[in-house]
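User: Just a sanity check before I run the rest of the batch. Below are the structure tokens for the first item. I only need the designed sequence back.
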């Protein structure tokens, strides 16, 4: 069991004198798997996740994108040599006016 290294390790050591092998995250995980309250389970897992996985955050991207790039994604592990590039039949819609025009045609 790993030790918690912080300014509070003296408190943790005092707790371990009464409860040998105690670790707060293990105790929270135990609680999460041994209770019937779904909200409590969620809160326990949410608390533990902060210590074991990086938190993902959204990132806003701003700017003007003048050019269009084509991205190809292959579902095959090997290169395919006999493939033919097929151009899309429809024009790329780049503004709301074009989108509305196409939608009105249907």
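Assistant: Here's the designed sequence for the first item:
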């Amino acid at each position: 069991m790993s030790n918690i290294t912080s300014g509070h390790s003296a408190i943790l050591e005092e707790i371990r004198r009464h409860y040998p092998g105690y670790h707060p995250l293990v105790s929270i995980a135990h609680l999460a798997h041994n209770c019937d309250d779904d909200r409590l389970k969620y809160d326990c897992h949410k608390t533990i996740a902060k210590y074991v996985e990086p938190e993902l955050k959204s990132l806003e991207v701003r700017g003007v994108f003048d050019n269009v790039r084509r991205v190809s994604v292959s579902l095959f592990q090997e290169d395919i040599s006999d493939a033919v590039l097929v151009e899309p039949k429809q024009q790329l819609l780049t503004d709301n006016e074009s989108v509305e025009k196409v939608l009105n045609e249907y």
